[in-house]
Amino acid sequence: MRIATTANAALARWLREATNRPTGRLWARRRVRIESQRCHPDLLERLHVLVEQLPETSTRFVGGIPLVGHPGAVVFAMAAGQSWVMLRLPPHVHSVVVHSEWGNRGLTGDWVDVDPWLTDLEPYEALSRVRGWVRAAYEYAGELAPPPPRVSPT
After folding, report:
1. Phi/psi class of residue 47: alpha, beta or left (left: φ > 0; alpha: ψ in -120 to 50)?
2. Gap between the Cα atoms of 124 and 132, Å rounded
3. Predicted TM-score of the model (pTM)
4. Dist CA 10 CA 152 (whole Å)
5. Close Cβ partners of 47 (under 8 Å, ≥ 6 residues apart)
6. C-alpha–C-alpha distance, residues 62 and 45, integer Å
7. What is the dihedral of CA 42, 47, 51, 52, to 10 degrees?
8. Is residue 92 within 8 Å of residue 143, measured between CB atoms?
9. Are 98 and 50 in contact (CB under 8 A)?
10. Region of 64 on the Ramachandran plot (φ > 0 left; ψ -120 to 50 alpha; else beta)
């Protein structure tokens, strides 16, 4: 997963500030030690459950923050703490999600905070609803992804 792309520019700026790394490369790692994660293991597991049915996603850690990417290299989800999840959604969907109590922490634009647990609902209904938002974020990331390079016939 490449963070330094045009489609991920706002996220890269936010990550630089959040991880206190104003310059240099943002390293996207497959695994980090548990003590270096900025996401509770239960929330990380929830994030994995939310994206497990989506094709070809990749999860990488930047500064201990798990990011989920679309096959087209556009990040569409991330998590931190015990209950903070951000999804990249088209603006017309922002008003239909249930927001977390933590807000967007300065990441604006098409990013919106969502409540990943929805404890007021039955567990199956909560999971189904949040999965729907994640699916919408995945599809939106597909729209934002640059077209694949054309291969000329030889």
Report:
1. alpha
2. 12
3. 0.91
4. 33
5. 39, 59, 66, 68, 77, 79, 85, 116
6. 17
7. -20
8. no
9. no
10. left
Q: Are strands 75-80 and 84-88 parallel, antiparallel or unpaired?
A: antiparallel
Could you tell me what percent of the chain has a pLDDT over 70? Answer: 99
- Please report, as a single letter, which amino acid is at residue 96: V
Copy the structure tokens of residue 30.
């497959």
Residue whose token pair is 């850690």: 61
Amino acid identity of 107? L
pLDDT in tens, 37-93: 999 999 999 999 999 999 999 999 999 999 999 998 999 999 999 999 999 999 999
Q: Are 129 and 121 in contact (CB under 8 A)?
A: yes
Any residues with CB less than 8 A from the CB of 45 and at least 6 apart, and which?
A: none
CA-angle at 131, arms to 4 and 11, nearest 5°: 20
Type of residue at 10:
A
